[in-house]
Amino acid sequence: MQKIRVPLWLALAGCLGSATLAGVWAQAPGADKKPDEPITLTEYPYLPARFGEPYIPSVAEWQAMRVTSLGASTTRITEHFSRQHLTCFPTPKGLVLTLDLLPQPGWTHYASGGKFTAPLAQVKPDLEKAVDSTLKFVRGFFGEVRDRDISLRVFIRSENVGVWENGKLTLNAEKPPVK
Fold this sequence. Notes:
- By secondary structure, the chain is an alpha+beta fold.
- 28% of the residues lie in helices and 26% in strands.
- It folds into 2 domains: 45 residues, no CATH class; 116 residues, Alpha-Beta Plaits (2-Layer Sandwich).
- The chain is built from 3 helices and 8 strands.
- A 6-stranded mixed beta sheet has the order 1-2-3-6-7-8. A two-stranded antiparallel sheet has the order 4-5.
- The longest helix has 20 residues.
- The radius of gyration is 27 Å and the shape is extended.
């Protein structure tokens, strides 16, 4: 069998030519429709047309998507906690964040259901370190955001344990029971 050597420019020209011919021979979208029917092109034929509409997110929305996607994997953030996930939503009133923490094996102060086995004075500084680490990460994307414009819901193992707002962490266990 004899090898035939084709110059690269000739091979590329051939590919371009065949692609052009394929485009000419292909049937135009919507050609089978009657002239009075509007042609609807959608990127997702299995969804309603509105899902194929163009959408240009704001810079805040892009940054929030980046924070959420980068916060989606488990990452160790302090000696006592790993971040299970972090979500970020820009709203007209400020950033709304959710932080789900996983305690490290040595940190045995969580009793489930938003309750702790140790005094809150011992638990709160560890949680505040995890929140501080998270806010440092978020400020890498939103450097100008102020504390008063951030609301961070804190979870441990997907159970709500508190909220950080206006620069202060308040645990659910600190709040009086609602009657």
